[in-house]
Amino acid sequence: MNEQALTVREAIIGRRSIKKFNGQPVDRADLLQIIDDAVWAPNHQNREPWRLVVACGKELFQLHNLLRNTTIPDWRTLSEEEVEKRMQKFTTPGGYVFVIVPEDPRQKERLEDFAAACALIQNMMLLAWDYGIGSCWKTPEFLDKPNFRKELGVKPGERIVGMVQFGYFDELPKGKERKKSDEIVTIFGENEEEHKEE
């Protein structure tokens, strides 16, 4: 972790989604500490609806094989160089966290649990940034493939909310400008007043 912790504002504004990791491993103890802190995310009725599947260290090799078999079904017919090139986006992160939530049959609770899991993911990404670890939250289609779910141990009635890659990086991406409050905020009652004038 950084000797001098970032302020919340610095972490939120400074964090970037990292797409190019440098292959340096993420320490398991750091990743688990990030998770231990991230679970303080707001969640309705303190249900803590999430469970996580983590891969870093020796189990990454097994995950890479699963990702290769899932995303490049014809990999055996390709050259080793081509497979390696296609797999680079999976092999350079130093750790993975898959966030899983129950698919509650009640719509309100299902949406609440999804929102809570998203807050957990944001917490993990901000905490990782404070450690100097980059991250990227991804929702590829293959997360819903039956074989991938089975290999990850996802049960019927559960959903993978996201795959979060963690790792170190050599280049900091530039931040893209965000909309300001004057573009996205309506002050309560303003529209009502406008309608009265019409």
What are the key terms here?
single chain, 198 residues, alpha+beta, NADH Oxidase, four-stranded antiparallel sheet, 4 strands, 43% helix, globular
Verbal overview:
Helix content is 43%, strand content 14%. The protein is of the alpha+beta class and 198 residues long. It has a single domain, classed as 3-Layer(aba) Sandwich (NADH Oxidase). A 4-stranded antiparallel β-sheet has the order 1-2-4-3, covered by helices on one side. The longest helix has 24 residues, at 107-130.
- CATH fold call: NADH Oxidase
Give the biggest beta sheet: 4 strands, antiparallel
Q: Rg from C-alpha positions?
A: 20 Å
Number of self-contained structural domains? 1
Query: How much strand content do the residues show?
Result: 5-15%
Supply the CATH architecture. 3-Layer(aba) Sandwich
End-to-end separation = 58 Å
CATH superfamily: NADH Oxidase
The residue fraction in helices comes out at 40-55%
Summarize the structure.
By secondary structure, the protein is of the alpha+beta class. The chain has helices spanning 8-14, 28-38, 60-71, 80-91, 107-130, 146-152, 181-184, 190-197; strands at 51-55, 95-102, 134-138, 158-167.
Indicate the topology.
Layout: H1 8-14, H2 28-38, E1 51-55, H3 60-71, H4 80-91, E2 95-102, H5 107-130, E3 134-138, H6 146-152, E4 158-167, H7 181-184, H8 190-197
Antiparallel strand pairs: 1-2, 2-4, 3-4
